[in-house]
Design goal:
This protein has 8 helices and 14 strands. The longest helix is centred in the N-terminal third of the chain and has 16 residues. The radius of gyration is 18 Å and the shape is globular. It folds into 2 domains: 144 residues, Fructose-1,6-Bisphosphatase, subunit A, domain 1 (Fructose-1,6-Bisphosphatase, Chain A, domain 1); 118 residues, 3-Layer(aba) Sandwich (D-Maltodextrin-Binding Protein, domain 2). It is an alpha+beta fold. The strands form 3 sheets. A 7-stranded mixed sheet has the order 3-4-5-6-7-8-9, with helices on both faces. Strands 11-10-12-14-13 form a 5-stranded mixed sheet, with helices on both faces. Strand 1 and strand 2 form a beta hairpin. The termini are far apart. Bound molecules: D-MYO-inositol-1-phosphate and calcium ion (2 copies). The site of D-MYO-inositol-1-phosphate has 11 residues, from strand 4 and helix 4.
């Protein structure tokens, strides 16, 4: 039995969005935006305020729990290594996922949160702020969009699939080959927002996503959401994805059969073990 009230947590995310994110949408001042590792890797005052708020309030919901977030880790104030210790209860925050879209005035951004207990993702939340849609998942208890249970029923053939991929973080020497392989799918593009890509797969609008560079705040929430909606998520080495994993890649699919078909298409002729 869960001791967390998922609706209460969703309410907290909505309050954060209303207080710190929405008022700045298309209203960001220059001094509220900064680049991190490069010009596309941005942080805004909204990211910082949401993360700071969640850092204050989440520990009260689970005594002894610890909060880590993308921005605290980026500043070097928090330790991602805590995820290697299964005795710790850890909240993982992506305060604004799709920051580049948010800054550019596009619609695809959201707040993401996961709660890891005994080394596994037990709960996750994705809040699509402009769509006012709460995606909530609990391990073994299902996935929901605004209270409606999600069950993926569409299983399309590869030529009919919509796939999400951002080549930027892929090993350089296989980027072109993977680009060629992706032409087997109906369409493939990046939304530059993991929150929206995962939620589209969980609701059957998209079928597949291929990821490299596994930052836990980008992938733990959506992976649980898709799995609980009946989809299939596994690493490039075909093993289960856990909060301890960092840099290998992921395939996210609407079911195990689609996952297998995609794996064979994408990695045909590539010795994937070299990249794990
Ligand atoms: C980004 C998004 C995007 C992915 C990038 C992430 P951020 O998150 O999830 O989909 O391609 O790798 O950095 O930085 O906007 O939270
Ligand atoms: Ca992110
Ligand atoms: Ca972020």
């Amino acid at each position: 039995m869960s001791v967390i009230d998922p609706q209460h947590v969703a309410q907290i995310l909505e309050e954060c969005a209303n207080k710190y994110v929405l008022p700045r949408y298309k209203q960001l001042q220059e001094h509220e935006i900064a680049a991190k590792s490069g010009p596309r890797d941005l942080v805004t005052q909204a990211d910082i305020d949401v993360e700071a708020h969640l850092e204050r309030v989440l520990p009260d919901l689970l005594p002894g729990s610890i909060v880590i977030g993308e921005e605290g880790i980026s500043r070097g104030d928090m330790d991602i290594g805590i995820l290697q210790d299964p005795s710790q209860t850890v909240w993982i925050v992506d305060p604004v996922d799709g920051t580049h879209n948010f800054v550019s005035g596009r619609r695809e951004f959201g707040i993401m949160l996961a709660c890891v207990i005994e080394g596994e993702t037990r709960h996750s939340w994705i809040y699509d702020i402009l769509g006012d849609a709460h995606y909530i998942a609990e391990k073994g208890e299902g996935a929901y969009r605004n209270g409606e249970k999600l069950e993926i029923t569409e299983h399309r053939a590869p030529a009919e699939m919509t796939a999400h991929i951002n080549y930027r973080y892929f090993p350089r020497d296989i980027q072109e080959q993977i680009r060629g392989a992706m032409s087997a799918f109906g369409e493939s593009y990046s939304l530059s927002c993991a929150a929206h890509e995962y939620s589209r797969i969980a609701t059957g609008q998209s079928d597949l996503a291929l990821y490299s560079r596994l930052k836990p705040w980008d992938h733990l929430p959506g992976a649980l959401l898709v799995q609980e909606a009946g989809g299939y998520v596994a690493k490039w080495d075909e093993r289960a994805y856990t909060p301890r994993d960092d840099y290998a890649g992921l395939i996210v699919a609407s079911c195990e059969e689609s996952w297998r078909k995609a794996f064979n298409i994408i990695f045909q002729g590539i010795d994937i073990k070299k990249y794990l």
